[in-house]
Amino acid sequence: MFMTASMNAALRQLAEAASLVASATAALAQPDLPAGHAAYFAMLTEHLGQQLTRAQIHAAEAARRTGAHKLDQESLQTISDAGPKPTAQDVDATVGRTTSGRTHFRHTADLLHGWLGIPLSTARDRLVQADCLIAGVNDAGQLTAPWLPELAKQFTDANTDPRLVVAASKKIHAVRNDLGQDHVREAAKTKLQADAVHFIKNEPETARKHLSDLVAEVKSGTREMEALLAEIGFFKVGTRNGLVEYLLRVLPAQAAVIEAFRQQLNNPKTIAGNRDALRELDSELTGEPASQWDDVSSMPDWARADATQSEEAGDGELLSSTAEEPDEQPAGQVNNEPTAEPAARTPRLEQMDAPWENLSPERRHLIGFMALLLIDRTGSGGSPGKQPGLATPQVSIIIDYEKMVERGKDFEVTSSGLALSVGETRAALCNAGVYPLVLNGKSLPLDLGRTQRLYSKAQGRAIRAAYRGCSYPGCSMPAERCELDHLDAWEKGGNTDLCSSDLGCPVHHIERHCGLFHAVKIPGCRPMVLLSQELDPEQRLRVNTFFLTPDEALEANALADSMTRLWRAGKLDVEIVDP
């Protein structure tokens, strides 16, 4: 009983602390704040940040240890209702009740992400840090000792900045597969911890830099295959300056295949290096005549290193675009200006004979790579040289007719949410198989008919093209990995019509049928989602905008807000779909 009372008091103190911080910040943000008070404000805030770092990781560990992700809907609602200024009775009621049935969240990271809005990567990091600094959990659900016991001691030391300890644990955990096996791994881990503790205690100002160097030293040796396999992959980095960036990490043996292909692309006598065919493909992909760089001064910075290399070596010389990491440059040296080679090494456009040579080497390599992806490997065409076995990638492009007429731009987008230019769209339409799909103004695919219990291929293509991914707000599962969902249950007499269809990933499809959230059917509009009250106290209609462009997301949110207002005013006939 005493323990429960102390826990309740601690929770009320946390709630009061949050309120006090907010009010103090508002008061100290005044323009007439004295300089000394501003410095004291900054110092106290840093101390508070240290305490919050500890609290966040302890909270994540406590949520995992207690199975908080299994709390039932009523318990989550009670906790949400308690809010930032709870009474003693409110705190008493937040003890909660877990259930063995289907719950909103599959695991602790899902709870932190889906309920508290913490980025999923951050939630996972906190749980890893809890493993390292507080306690781990084995396969039987039992607590184990922290993975980094020496750093765990520093984490509890009130005189040590926990943020440095957390950073050290994260870096050491990241190279866990590089430390060897069994006793070798333990010895290496112990040494890394000892070195990290030394820097944290004695040189906190430069501790992060030294920790990075320690990790770099570990990775500089011969790496185990387990460590290499953990980091290889084909990653989408994001969109920058109008271009979509990808990162490719491969094993040396795989790199040898890629480099051999690059050699062939540099040799016009090979099939891969066929200049006329690749030049034609370049125009087909871009929809515009190929642009050129006249000289070094017109090139972007990242291309200048390779552009100054001679390509006269033929297929025996490979181009490289390696760049030094910032930490590897001499201290105080800034290298922002490229070093130009003599003019003879960089011939101008009019001095080149072959049209294909007008393109940068990097662009030629990209076109060659795209040629591999676009080869018809289905064998359906029966053309010589085409190999059966691998499917050709299928890309859906959605064109908004009204936007095309009104604006003449920003009317085309792929089903994965990538905006295309007019030229790119025109080129795609000239070379692709076209499946007409009509959408109304609210992104609802028009019905293609009902003939069977399961959706037809044409219906499935229409639904996936229109909705692009899972309907649950924030879910990142793309359409091709989602399941078609009957909002009008077939076993209850429902139809297999597009107007009553939706997409759900395997997890959220089941959760909808378990009643953890509801789909909402709106006449003439795509289905929306109504979350349970403990997840969305405002009870707004929502649309998943993960796969939409920013403009589309703004329009979708505006439509959802409009529908919500009409629904609350009793001016909209909606159907909240039963599980």
From TrEMBL:
Residues 65-99, 304-354 are annotated as: Disordered. Residues 1-29 form the signal peptide. InterPro entries: HNH_nuc. CDD domains: HNHc. Keywords: Signal. This is HNH endonuclease.
